[in-house]
């Protein structure tokens, strides 16, 4: 039986991008399937009283610098060579993560994730500006008008809120978070543990 890994996901996190780039290799090696669940990272932070690393580590000598070194090591280890820090970071991801719910309803979430991550972390754009978002969607071959409408759809808004609330109830406090059954793993550096568990 194929094992499923739930991946709580938001475009706002560079570590979600880096994790995404590793997921396909784990799926190929193990036969597991990663189930991407779009959530709003800002909503998770608010609900759990958490803060983004840049804010949480502000004023701690050498801590943010180490985070950068660690990200570079991860990229080197996994052959990730297209990552660029978004100059507009932090990008408020509310609109594009709502778009992910719309894409999921219409059956193309995988492609949507690939393309929007490219616009966020490979060819970085200000993906919280509606005009920039619309141009990026068009460039990716999506129905930009439909996606822009879906972002304002009450049902899609409600689904994102529900996903986010359920994530917090399950124990999520940040992104990326993975579940194998009810075993929780936080952060890209736990992916080797995820792979070990699905291989058991």
Structure commentary:
56% of the residues lie in helices and 10% in strands. The protein is globular. The chain is of the alpha+beta class. The protein has a four-stranded mixed sheet with strand order 2-1-3-4. Helix 1 (14-30) links the parallel strand 1 and strand 2.
Q: Could you tell me the strand content as a percent range?
A: 5-15%
Any idea what the CATH superfamily is called? Glutaredoxin
Spatially, the strands of the biggest sheet line up as 2-1-3-4
| Spatial separation of the terminal alpha carbons | 12 Å
Low-confidence stretches: none
Tally the structural domains. 1
- Quote the CATH topology: Glutaredoxin
Rg calc = 16 Å
User: What is the C-level CATH assignment?
Assistant: Alpha Beta
Q: What is the correct CATH architecture?
A: 3-Layer(aba) Sandwich
Residue-averaged pLDDT, rounded?
95
Structural class: alpha+beta
